[in-house]
Amino acid sequence: MTLSHQAALRVGPLVLAAVLLQVSVVAQVTILGGRANLIPVVVAALALLGGSVAGATAGFAAGLLLDLAMGMSLGGSSLALTGVGYGVGRFGELRDVSHGLLPIAVAAAATAGYDVAYGAITFMLDIGASISALVLRDMLMAILLNAALALPLFALVRRIVRPVVAAGRLEPRRRGRTRESGPLGLRGLDVSGR
Known about the structure:
- It contains six helices and no strands.
- By secondary structure, the protein is an all-alpha fold.
- It has one domain: Orthogonal Bundle (Arp2/3 complex 21 kDa subunit ARPC3).
- Helix 1 (5-24) runs parallel beside helix 3 (52-70), helix 2 (38-50) runs parallel beside helix 4 and helix 2 crosses helix 6.
- The longest helix is centred in the last third of the chain and has 29 residues, at 133-161.
């Protein structure tokens, strides 16, 4: 995804809506003792579709808005979500992202990465992190709930962002043909004796 005005007009309201929905509705609902977190899933979807730079940018913006909306110390969520966005975007740049069930694994990994990174940041900065077995249980439930929400959220993000994503980014990739080469990568050197 190229960083343009059209992309900003699509991604900005999407990130803002995700943060507002997370803060006002999703954070209040408890399912099986855990709460879903839409923000890492939306950032992962944007990163997978747009690449590492777009993912890091969306992660920073979403984290900053989340910190401001929740009244938390600024920077913790931004730093964690920037790393998640960059990592998922880099994965999407290097791998084929056209498999239908990939969003489930990506959402689970993004949620786990965000939870671990945010926990480490708050612990190191002594913002008020508590470490216990209940934190691990809540983290596991959030990962499972986010994995369950992954397919509809990724489909929604893809539908909104599709017009600004670079052509060819969403189609399956084919492996390139390997070129025969000589020793040390010298092309044209015939080593087979033909």
